[in-house]
Specification:
Blueprint: H1 2-12, H2 17-29, H3 33-46, H4 50-62, H5 66-79, H6 84-96, H7 100-113, H8 125-135, H9 139-152, H10 157-170
Helix pairs in contact: 1-2, 2-3, 2-4, 3-4, 4-5, 5-6, 6-7, 6-8, 7-8, 8-9, 8-10, 9-10
Length: about 170
């Protein structure tokens, strides 16, 4: 229902950036990432703002377009350098791209800005940063992050697995 209302407003006044933004969010929630990308780009064209860049980054990330998502997350941080959530998402993208050092830095910055931030479905900065440390063969740091992750979320089995892998490397 909301989608059809936003589409109707877009048809009546295509120069209103927040219609394109809300339409993009609706498409993002429906997992229609190419439509979300198109609408969010139009919103940014009309009026650049951090939330539009952020959600464009999310749409691109969900589409597997990680390098393009990085550009959009960088745009957010130019406008709002204190946005912890964007550091977490950018860290995740860097992790996916295998740029583990940048991922660690992003998670560190995000944790400084908001140490208790947790994403939906139990994915959080300590687990992801620990994964980056593990990939960098920094097993002590990985174990510390997995320990912290387990303190916060003791029912997540993959954290125990990765902590075990890290511990095995120290022997």
């Amino acid at each position: 229902a909301a989608l059809s209302d936003f589409e109707q407003v877009q048809n009546l006044d295509s120069t209103y950036p927040f219609v394109h933004y809300n339409l993009g969010l609706s498409y993002l929630n429906l997992k229609q990432y190419s439509d979300a990308t198109r609408s969010l780009r139009k919103a940014i064209e009309l009026k650049p703002f951090a939330y539009a860049y952020y959600n464009l980054g999310r749409a691109l990330q969900e589409s597997g377009e990680y390098r393009k998502a990085l550009v959009e997350y960088d745009n957010v941080l130019k406008l709002d350098p204190e946005d912890a959530e964007t550091y977490y998402y950018r860290g995740f993208v860097n992790l996916k791209l295998g740029d583990y050092e940048k991922a660690v830095k992003d998670y560190e910055r995000g944790l400084v800005l908001n140490p208790t931030y947790v994403k939906q479905q139990g994915v959080h900065a300590y687990f992801n940063r620990g994964s980056a440390f593990l990939a960098l063969n920094d097993y002590q740091s990985a174990i510390k992050d997995f320990d912290r992750s387990i303190e916060l979320y003791p029912n997540r089995s993959d954290t125990y697995l990765k902590r075990g892998l890290s511990r095995a490397q120290l022997r």
